[in-house]
Amino acid sequence: MGNCTTNxxxxxxxxRNTTEIRVKPxxxxxxxxxxxYRYRNAGDGYLEEELDNQGRPLADVHHxxxxxxxxxxxxxxxxxxxxxxxxxxxxxNSLSNLARDGNCSRLKQPCRTGLPFGARGPVWLALxxxxxxxxxxxxxxxxxxxxxxxxxAHQIDVDVARTERDHIMFKRRYGRGxxxxxxxxxxxxxxxxxxxxxxxxxxMVALLLMFLEEExxxxxxxxxxxxxxxxxxxxxxxxxxxREVWYIHDRLVEKYLPELSAHLxxxxxxxxxxxxxxxxxxxxxxAFCVILPFPVVLRIWDYFLSEGYKVIxxxxxxxxxxxxxxxxxxxxxxxxxxxxxxxxxxxxxQLLDLSIRKKVKERVILGFQAEYQEQxxxxxxxx
Length: 383
Fold this sequence. Notes:
- The protein is mainly alpha-helical.
- It has 19 helices and four strands.
- Residues 5-29 have low confidence and may be disordered.
């Protein structure tokens, strides 16, 4: 955890309005103290042999780093063989200056066409710093780091250990990148106690940390739980927001892709399952950040951070348009697998072009959202 100068025990941080955060004191926990010790003292990385997903030493199978920071065997993909053009550097400088000036209205079109890599950090930060109109507790990031909840430390540590291990920032066990990821997730669990920590958050935080400083990544992740990103209630018990989103997804498929909707219904109804809740779970709960190739994820997140959660619906329908010919020939298990693991060679320009040209109107999303809420209101309550 970060260096703390405040008392870890009794602490209360009052919101500017009425809500408060009660920061829990550290208590004895079978794993918590040992985990905190490792993150505080490992320095540049825990001294253990680094292995890949197949248990092979990384030094034996990876020799290069690509332009995005991922380990690669390909010389052609390595960072040494890539160099930004003069035009790209000029665009990076121009967009970075717009972002630092807070001129977000002029960033909409560049976010749709794809940001230059070097401008992504300043632009994402500017977009995430736009006011949401929502009151926040009067608490600092450092104060949150000083009062972690040891009850979630073990699960966060487990998830940190398996998040983005092929990326140079996170490959070292208990290294600097993993320390930052652990810190942000622990601080968020204290900050947002209604949601707490849920498996699946680590991928989104890791993505933010690749482009933002640690504290900026924390507040950026907090911002995702406010309008227009609407991750609030997504990870709460029972996943109320996720269930609403899956309903909207099914209605959108029915509206825009009726033949595919009929086929997916025909192969899933006899099994008593909904294909969207299995195949598209990571489309909506992680904003695609863990299931598509990294360059595609970056383009989606440029668009998403600029225009909000409605973008995820547009990208989802665009992706189904691309996959529909294959899906129409598949049974239930095959369709789920294709949706969970789309082709690695998917054309990012085609995907984003479709999602923009045939974007899902916000009024349509809101209409299906109201329809879902009305169904909930009329449903008999369970005792």
